[in-house]
Amino acid sequence: MLYVIRFFPEITIKTRSVRQRLIKTLRRNLRILMGRIDSRISVTGDWDILEVETNTADETLLAQVVDVLRNTPGISLISQVSKQTLPDFDGILTEILPYYRDQLQGRSFAVRSKRQGNHDFSSMELERYLGAALLRETGASGVDLRQPDVTVRLEIRQQTLYVVTQQWRGLGGYPMGTQEPVLSLISGGFDSAVSSYLFMRRGVQTHFLFFNLGGKEHELAVKEVALYLWMRFGASHRVKFISVPFEPLLGEILTRVDSGHMAVVLKRMMIRAADQIAREMKLSALVTGECVAQVASQTLPNLNVIDQVTDMLVLRPLIVTDKQDIIDMARRIGTEEFSAQVPEYCGVVSVKPTTNAKLQRVLEEEAKLDIELINAAVAEREVQMIDRVVEVLEHRDVEPEQVTDVPAGAMVIDIRHPQEQERAPLSDEHYEVAVVPFYQLSTQFAMMDASRQYLLYCDKGMMSRLHASHLKDAGYQNVGVYRPSA
């Protein structure tokens, strides 16, 4: 199967040297991502298009290829094509008919051709010929150039014909790694997940910073969100997940700071810590999911006071976005289910929070705190590469067993995202499969038969290891990971 990749339009208007650099990066990214699916997949091309080709007929593998292409930054359009040396008009008709004969039955259509190179015919002449011939050779109801039921697409590049059999919209944006990296403050909620995605889509290598206020369960949920975002949109580049223990500092704020100023002070402390970590990582910007007036701490006066603790660039891509639009975007990118299940930490909720904090008053409140607690929290941070977050560094005894064959009597639990389950359902006559999405697992597992062995399954094995480790840490010894052999 052959796929032709069209670039994000902004790439094509860059200077020659910049365009070449962006395309080279995208080609390298795709080779990394495709290599994880099948080492035999080739990625070639340069100036105008890239071609991704695989010889497999495995529908599951082909679906994986398309899924990766649709979610790789830098791609505008993916076309599944057949490719051959350019024949005459009759030959082109012969190539098109097998793909479109059944589709055109009883339906209106239009022919659209793109042509590059010198030929003794125009695109319009070719479209007219093929339109008349298809109307004659198929059971099409007629030609409709404005709103056709089916569009017959083909491209001619010099002496090569591409017949387009299917198309998908790409993610757009710039290739990952072509912009300076950033540190995204992620809480696991709708806003921070979407803001992180927007930077990843723009080609920005996005590291994740989490301030732990609510214990292990909250951290696990946020790791799930970060891991999903990375696997879905940024897996061509490794990034870090940094977890900072902020409970001691939070305790100080809760007991010493005026109730109306707690949220602003907490945000300033987080930005201070993020500034330290970003500078150590040689990053030049922070990213947050804040939006004007969504909560009291996010009014313009309060954001101004918060930002005065750093001279580092603080980027807020959602700053004027409606909450429902954020949730809709989370649904489109697949993080809605994650974020809806993230435990909310409500320890810093003021009865009457200030919406117009004054810097001098905030400084007075901060003077009550032991600022060294920030340095202590930063020093005690846990840093993991995002693809290693499933490793439990301090509890090796809870590392789950991984098996390639399902033992008799064991049940496989498919914990994948519903979109992934729908794309490639897991079924086998030799073992029982239960479908329990990751965000339902913690509640449903407790109700399962404790005498049975359960094996968690996901495509990459990362999410299943993460959840199996968590369940073993919670005391369940009848859980492992199913990693079928290729």
Briefly summarize what is shown.
The protein has 486 residues and is of the alpha/beta class.
List keywords for this structure.
486 residues; alpha/beta; eight-stranded mixed beta sheet; 40% helix; 22% strand
Written account of the structure:
40% of the residues lie in helices and 22% in strands. The chain is built from 17 helices and 19 strands. It has an 8-stranded mixed β-sheet with strand order 2-3-1-4-8-7-5-6. A 6-stranded mixed β-sheet has the order 13-12-9-10-11-14, sandwiched between helices. The protein starts with a strand and ends with a strand.
Radius of gyration: 27 Å
Total count of strands: 19
Number of helices: 17
Name the structural class: alpha/beta
**Spatial gap, N to C terminus:** 20 Å
Shape: globular
Mean pLDDT: 88
Strand content: 15-25%
Low-confidence stretches: 392-396
Strand order, main sheet: write it out: 2-3-1-4-8-7-5-6
Largest sheet: 8 strands, mixed
Fraction of helical residues: 40-55%
Lay out the secondary structure.
Elements: E1 2-7, H1 9-12, H2 16-37, E2 42-45, E3 50-53, H3 59-70, E4 75-85, H4 89-104, E5 108-116, H5 123-137, E6 142-143, E7 150-157, E8 160-172, E9 179-185, H6 190-201, E10 204-212, H7 216-234, E11 240-245, H8 247-256, H9 262-280, E12 285-287, H10 300-307, E13 313-315, H11 323-333, H12 336-341, H13 359-366, H14 372-379, E14 382-385, E15 402-403, E16 411-414, H15 418-423, E17 432-435, H16 438-444, E18 454-457, H17 462-473, E19 479-482
Parallel strand pairs: 5-6, 5-7, 9-10, 9-12, 10-11, 12-13, 15-19, 16-17, 16-18, 18-19
Antiparallel strand pairs: 1-3, 1-4, 2-3, 4-8, 7-8, 11-14
